[in-house]
Amino acid sequence: MNKYVITGGKKLQGEVSISGAKNAAVAILPATVLAGGVCRIENVPNISDVSSLLDILTHMGARVRFLQRSVVEIDTTHLHTPQVPYELARKMRASCYFLGALLGRYHRAQVAMPGGCDFGVRPIDQHIKGMELLGATVLLEHGVVEVSASALCGTSIYLDVVSVGATVNVLLSAVCSEGLTVIENAAKEPHIVDLANFLNAMGADVRGAGTDVIKVHGVPRLHGCTYSIIPDQIEAGTFMAAAAATGGRVLLKNVIPKHLESISAKLAEMGVQITEYDDSLLVERNGALNHANLKTMPHPGFPTDMQPQMAVLLSLAQGTSIITEGVWDNRFRYVEELKRMGANIQVDGKIAVVEGVGRLLAAPVKATDLRAGAAMLIAGLVAHGVTEIEDIRHIERGYEYVDEKFRALGAQIERVSVTPDGEPLASAV
Ligand SMILES: CC(=O)N[C@H]1[C@@H](OP(=O)(O)OP(=O)(O)OC[C@H]2O[C@@H](n3ccc(=O)[nH]c3=O)[C@H](O)[C@@H]2O)O[C@H](CO)[C@@H](O)[C@@H]1O
Ligand SMILES: C=C(OP(=O)(O)O)C(=O)O
């Protein structure tokens, strides 16, 4: 058990380099199964979701080795099982991408139902529908999804909802199928485009990623390649929100400003100055924060993965703001934690009404999930006093060296190891 201990009140100042995108990495690593060869993946974030996926690949017989801190070589030439057991699958949501990848390569897979953050129901019916339309038989028994096909044939697949996960799994299943697959109402997230680029680098023929119609011309086989993962949109957004919350001035390096447009626009509406450069972005705030309403939606809408962080900022603003969660049924569990720090937020279903309170006060809080944890970090950075955040394993699923990065910007944050009964063991500073 570990926790972050933050003494709030320091304005963040300086430069931070944004890491490779978690949500691209968690699709690309399973996709290496399709290579049947050696892939060298660069800009891989050092987060626990990546370690868990590499453990699954190793379990299946892949040879995995780090060449440098963020460069991993994965050889999937010889895999000896198309199964992902529960102990490995339960650690993260993205384990379900092995279904599509293994189906694509071996025409069969058995993957335990995945874990991931708990936002209420996280169905996979559209993933299953897509695989069935391609010719697979799908069984769900004893918590394990089993897919098999004698052949996969290209077809037209209209997704009933815009789903990142279903778009990924259908792409992975379709790249080596026979003929043309058309995915309509596809997700348009930057990580979908990154996955498509990676598949094309392995020899696939995927066109239209980033629009809502993706066309996949099946090819007989793929091969290994070298590929660099895009910068993390949500890590960047989290640092943007933290800089704005503390009234600081931070230059984010290694970003794609286009991917951050919905976040930049909302922050600008709130009175934050954003200056875009080619691959960096300056965030600064001098005046008061304005209230604003926001609704999360699939890309290019405002990302659901930035919703909790924005609730912290809106709590510091003047006036009343309304947040509408447009993707998940239950993504406001963090609100009770934020209220412990003095926030005034009323939740009714998928809507939260945030009354700006101007300042937050330190309190012991929990990271109830990954981005909830990011929100607690930002709240701790601005709060008066010392905030302790527990359950930081959620945060470490998706943020690499987050304490180091905040310390380099002037924050007072320590990662402390604690015994099971909560006593400190040692400071990591
Ligand atoms: C479109 C969108 O913003 N997706 C987000 C979603 O991706 P993730 O891939 O986890 O979830 P999906 O994009 O698949 O889900 C989007 C919506 O579709 C519904 N659904 C999904 C699959 C399915 O088979 N059936 C179904 O009904 C879900 O209940 C949800 O309401 O959560 C991730 C973690 O927060 C975010 O990084 C993604 O940005
Ligand atoms: C919740 C997230 O991820 P996952 O889908 O892996 O749970 C996230 O990236 O915010």
From TrEMBL:
Source taxon at top rank: Bacteria
Cellular component aspect of the GO annotation: cytoplasm
Gene Ontology BP terms: cell division; cell wall organization; peptidoglycan biosynthetic process; regulation of cell shape; UDP-N-acetylgalactosamine biosynthetic process
GO molecular function: UDP-N-acetylglucosamine 1-carboxyvinyltransferase activity
Pfam families according to UniProt: EPSP_synthase
The protein's Enzyme Commission number: 2.5.1.7
Domain Enolpyruvate transferase residues, every copy: 7-404
Modified residues (2-(S-cysteinyl)pyruvic acid O-phosphothioketal): 117
Protein name according to UniProt: UDP-N-acetylglucosamine 1-carboxyvinyltransferase
Biological source species: Ethanoligenens harbinense (strain DSM 18485 / JCM 12961 / CGMCC 1.5033 / YUAN-3)
Upper lineage: Bacteria, Bacillati, Bacillota, Clostridia, Eubacteriales
